[in-house]
Amino acid sequence: MIPTTGLLLTDLYELAMLEAYFASDMEDEAVFEFFVRELPVGYGYLVAAGIEDVAELVEHARFTDAELDWMTKSGRFGAAFVDRLRDFRFTGSLDAMPEGTLFFPDEPVLRITAPLAQAQLLETRIINLLQYPILIATKGSRCATAAAGKQLVDFGLRRAHGAEAGLLAARACYLGGFDGTSTVLAAPRYGIPIYGTMAHSFIEAHDDELAAFEHFALARPEGLVLLIDTYDTEAAARKLLGLAPRLAERGTAIQAVRIDSGDLAEHARRVRRILDAGGRSEIRIFASGGLDEHQLQALLDAGAPIDGFGVGSKLDTSADAPYLDCAYKLMEYGGRPRRKHSEDKSTWPGRKQVVRRFDENGKMAGDQIQLAEEPVQDEGEALLQPIIQQGRRIGRLGTLEEARARRSDQVARLPSALRRLDAEPSYPVSASDSVRELAREADAFIKQQRNPGQRELKRLNR
């Protein structure tokens, strides 16, 4: 069986270029970098995520027999080309920002240095593995800022665009500051805390709402959260005042109630008054239902007595920013700088590093994109770190918990204006003189190729 996440999970043109490279003996070293051209509207930063999955891809990139058999039978590829792929291995290097690092437009987040065919083939999947986790980690971070310490749980698996997306989202939003997820597989896979309540169908399946609450509580006494908006939110809250003492006699405590519909702020106020008046101020209020960072902020600004939130559809689909204007581009080949010069899509050539500066208070003050071989000046911090060399891991990416802590620390060190949900002005990012000089060199080469001398014209016209 052909694996669903193997090397055939790519665009056809990657394989077409690969075959052409092999046929032309183009095997010199190439440098590709992944970067984002623009931030989504209102965003002040992005969070690096997905690097671990890219490292796994690169380190274990192989064509299976099933994939090669299909390529042969498809008739699209030459037999000699398919045969060469049997020994395909990644022999180059990977440098990247650690996960949880905040980054900004035009900054290389990841660099691949390898023989041209190897680096080229990975393009589609690398973009695929980086763009989505970056979006979700960043949206998760924005939600965490808006929630101001309130509990956040990812509820988005059922709305995610596929199984892989749902699992990646659980990891990414946890990296971004969420406390956990309802996605069960995220626990054994990533060690992420999992949370859950109940569905309205459980209540509806019972003839009596109070009986539904009691049955659920007796079956699932730990971390008990009861959904109270199936019929009448406030009436259900009153029912709990009689149920809570009976459950307490059996050693079960109602931890929270969940409200999933209507005017969440007003329902939360009414329910809080009912619970407090009934001597149940320890029962927390948890809210869900189409939330995002803007609604979280609005609810808390309105003083809604809500202790935690389940965020799903708009998180796992990154509803306000469903894609990034990102790219994985060739920056050097055969020792010569390469530069895309398309309108509005030009790139800085060469293998580059990002150096971050801080002010006297430890706040992030600005980044410089410079050539990788340039020394790091003024106590700056080089962001891209070596992960793989000669096809093997040499550096550790760190744990998911370390990535969470890194994101939290860097958001705290970000200028306050960029932490806002409508961030402005933009964070300062500059290119060094050496990068600009290399760009001029690349431009001169491009111009020469577009305007060959008379001798070259005569040769071409023979």
From TrEMBL:
Residues 381-438 form the Nicotinate phosphoribosyltransferase C-terminal domain. Residues 8-130 form the Nicotinate phosphoribosyltransferase N-terminal domain. Transiently phosphorylated on a His residue during the reaction cycle. Phosphorylation strongly increases the affinity for substrates and increases the rate of nicotinate D-ribonucleotide production. Dephosphorylation regenerates the low-affinity form of the enzyme, leading to product release. CDD domains: NAPRTase_A. Its EC number is 6.3.4.21. InterPro entries: Aldolase_TIM, N/Namide_PRibTrfase, NAPRTase_C, NAPRTase_N, Nic_PRibTrfase-Fam, Nic_PRibTrfase_pncB, Nicotinate_pribotase-like_C. Residues 151-330 form the Nicotinate/nicotinamide phosphoribosyltransferase domain. It comes from the Bacteria. GO terms for biological process: NAD+ biosynthetic process via the salvage pathway. Pathway: Cofactor biosynthesis; NAD(+) biosynthesis; nicotinate D-ribonucleotide from nicotinate: step 1/1. Keywords: Glycosyltransferase, Ligase, Phosphoprotein, Pyridine nucleotide biosynthesis, Transferase. It catalyses: 5-phospho-alpha-D-ribose 1-diphosphate + nicotinate + ATP + H2O = nicotinate beta-D-ribonucleotide + ADP + phosphate + diphosphate. GO terms for cellular component: cytosol. It is an enzyme of class 6 (ligase). One of its GO terms (molecular function) is nicotinate phosphoribosyltransferase activity. PANTHER family: NICOTINATE PHOSPHORIBOSYLTRANSFERASE. Belongs to the NAPRTase family. Catalyzes the first step in the biosynthesis of NAD from nicotinic acid, the ATP-dependent synthesis of beta-nicotinate D-ribonucleotide from nicotinate and 5-phospho-D-ribose 1-phosphate. This is Nicotinate phosphoribosyltransferase.
